[in-house]
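Supplementary Note 3. Input sequence used for the single-chain structure prediction.
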Amino acid sequence: MLKFRTSVTINRSPEEVFSFVSDFENEPKYQREVETTTKISEGPIGVGTTFCDVVRVMGLRLKSTYDIIEYEPSRSLAIKILEGQARFTARWTFTNAGGGTELGFSADVYPTGLLRLIQPLLQLRLQKQFEGNSNRLKEILES
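The predicted structure, written as discrete structure tokens, is reproduced below.
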């Protein structure tokens, strides 16, 4: 298992940050590796909402399907990958930080198949990727 943690302070309210992050169709705007994200379930976004991503990781084009498993507006959000080349859970926390938001991100990744063979490289690459995503998100929301 690979573990990741990042945090960034964004000069926007927890409500604004949560609204943007919880709409996963925004992912391609701040995650360079995400080619597309599509909501594939009906109804409003919340626990049980399902999305499908197509991402590029280390030259590989990967498709995954995931569900929102935790949804507390302006406080926390979590997903779990249901189908894909790696089992993955991710969680975001949104903490008021003096008029802004401290956005925490954590992920546990369980590579499968060929990805298991490159775990050390994957650890370094994904940590940089997650940190970059947080910084791009900050830039977008503060602009």
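The mean pLDDT is 92. The longest strand covers residues 60-72.
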